[in-house]
Amino acid sequence: MRIAGAEVIVTCPGRNFVTLEITTDDGLVGYGDATLNGRELAVASYLRDHVVPLLINRDAHKIEDTWQYLYRGAYWRRGPVTMAAIAAVDVALWDIKAKAAGMPLYQLLGGASRTGIMAYGHASGRDLPEVLDSIRARREEGFRSIRVQSGVPGLDTIYGIGNPLDRTGLPNEEVWDTRAYLRHVPTVFEAVRNEFGPELPLLHDVHHRLTPIQAAKLGKALEPYDLFWMEDCTPAENQEGLRLVRQHTTTPLAIGEVFNTAFDYQTLIREQLIDYVRSAVTHTGGVTAMRKLFDHAALYQVKSGIHGPTDISPVGMAAGLHLDLAIHNFGIQEFAPHSAETYEVFRRSYTFDDGYLHPGETPGIGVTVDKDAAAKFDYEPAYLPVNRLRDGTVHDW
Fold this sequence. Notes:
Layout: E1 3-11, E2 17-24, E3 29-33, H1 40-55, H2 63-72, H3 80-101, H4 105-108, E4 117-125, H5 128-140, E5 145-150, E6 173-176, H6 178-196, E7 202-205, H7 212-222, E8 229-231, H8 241-248, E9 253-255, H9 266-270, E10 276-277, H10 286-298, E11 303-304, H11 314-326, E12 333-334, H12 340-345, E13 346-348, E14 351-353, E15 356-358, E16 367-369, H13 371-374, E17 386-389, E18 394-395
Helix pairs in contact: 1-3, 2-3, 3-10, 6-7, 7-8
């Protein structure tokens, strides 16, 4: 079974998405997600100009060989653009292989290890009443685990608190105050626990904004509220910094949303400095690479927590769900439902019911792309915000 063609599809049904469609000589079609938020066209060009010509007439069944060919053969390794492009090829080929076998992908990964995939939803608000209302709304939607984000008194905007992407051509610039944040967040979780009790799993995303000692302070302050995890508490490129955090708090740590290879995790996993791997299939080399990463993490009792925001397309989401269902060391799955327009383009078989996701039983990954619908939504430049301290210094976010 040979690859006969490959097409890059760029569409914007509310968010920009980059999808690779691979077609074989016997008519099977596979899809892979290559979306890289704010840098979508860089990946589209990488695929269209540099990868697609290498795919034509390759054996579609040779997934591992193709992965190594694209990774080792390019000389310039790693990086988000390269790894998103490789991920798209990898997922599309797994989609094809599973369709050829007449099975959902998770069956080729060893079969189901659970009946459903625990998902967490996003709750946020500019102030405490809005936060509590948002949590109630997520619970009514069926979520059994909630990520809680809150505005901070004195700060006008914070990413993820009701502010849309900027489409004026330049990123929004937000103001940040670490001391105000550190004072406020524990009071939010105290109020949430008082309102909803001790059983509801709660998560919090720091967005890389703290130094290691600040992250340690926050983790310790949050211990009375028994978080499921504290996410991206400090920029993890400084992996040694997580040693300090770990020494001072027992709050579980989730790291890796901006990582894109298993090499980024070597110290963190080997020294058990984290509890959950946060990478997305879309950004970390696809199913092939992520399965190896999770198997390595399992040796150290580190679990999965696959990234699942709305800038991962339903194709990338579905690929993650098949891994979630198959691996033994599953932890939890982020789930931010897409817009109706997105689901018009990406027809999916995965479901969400009573707090649990399932990829479905459709052969392949269970997502197809309606190219006519995709053509109705032209690419629109959009950026995530830039974060600055009160004195104007550019800060992590």
